Amino acid sequence: MDTVLTEPELQQMECVYEKPDTLTDTRFHYCPGCGHSVAHRVLMEVVDELGIAERTVGVAPVGCSVFAYQYMNVDMQEAAHGRASAVATGIKRVYPDTYVFAYQGDGDLAAIGTAETIHVANRGENILVMFINNAIYGMTGGQMAPTTLLGMKTTTSPTGRTVETAGFPMKIADIVAMLPGTYFVTRQSVHTANAVRQLKKAVTKAFQYQKEKKGLCFVEVVSNCPSGWKMTPVQSNEWLVQNMLTMYPPGDIKVPK
Questions:
Q1: Quick one: angle between helices 84-94 and 114-123, nearest 10?
Q2: Which parts of the chain register pLDDT below 70?
């Protein structure tokens, strides 16, 4: 028999989670088990808790993140493929008192947007770049991305990625961390509750550093892609731990001295 709580009992219960106002009521369209929805929630929770929603502008480019403006209840701007950090730079320079973030996938940021990424980091633009790394082009058909692991099969590397034909996987966070304009560079993940908590701490720091005008903050999020990897959500998280995190280990890469 189901237990029905009375109104006084409900009022005494501690609320441990509620949807922040910075997320709309639109249901996420992402595939079951995808880490994008978790990353969205973490990002918007931080904006809500910092009380900066009215002064926050996000930029979403092409790829699985393209519909972010449907879910994030802040001012959003679309950008052409790979150009989100450049668009975010323009917004921040015109409105320096706003909090600006670019939300990009690996095919977007580390392939067609490589130049924008490197130069935005080198100039030390005072924005947050949130980089979702699932080692594949998720939306456009599961092609090989710059971050695809060696031996990993995709629609454009059906026998597995090789060094001879495609080079090594690109560790983009390590690259931007070497540039003087980056202030805070970290790599986190979303496959466990503790990992999500660590990501939230990193995003909070990034916005705080932006308030202090410290320079570029770069937060990589190692995520899964159950559909692109052709796995169940559980299998994809296990594969992430066994393979992705050995190539892309979580942790801070560049922190303030």
A1: 30
A2: 1-2
Q: Which residues contact 115 (CB under 8 A, 6 or more apart)?
A: none
Q: Does the model's pTM come out above 0.90?
A: yes
Domain parsing of the chain, residue ranges: 27-254
Query: Residue 6 has what pLDDT?
Result: 82
Length of the chain in terms of residues written: 257
Q: Quickly list DSSP for 7-54.
A: HHHHHHSPP-----TTB-SPPP-SPTT-SHHHHHHHHHHHHHHHT-GG
Reduce the DSSP state of residue 78 to 3 states and report it: strand
Beta bridge partners of 220: 131, 187
**Residue 59: which of 99, 19, 98, 103 has the closest Cα?**
103
CATH of domain 27-254: 3.40.50.970
CA distance 142 to 210: 34
Complete DSSP assignment for 110-166: IIITHHHHHHHHHHT-SSEEEEEE-SS-TTTTS---TTPPTT--BTTBTT---HHHH
Whether residue 86 contacts residue 79, with contact meaning beta carbons closer than 8 Å, is answered with yes
**Residue in this structure with the two tokens 């903050």, named with its chain if needed:** 217
Angle (deg, nearest 10), helices 36-50 and 193-211? 50
Phi, psi of 74 (to 5 degrees): -135, 170
Q: Can you give the pLDDT at residue 232?
A: 96
Distance CA 21, CA 52 (A): 12
For residue 97, the model assigns a pLDDT of 96
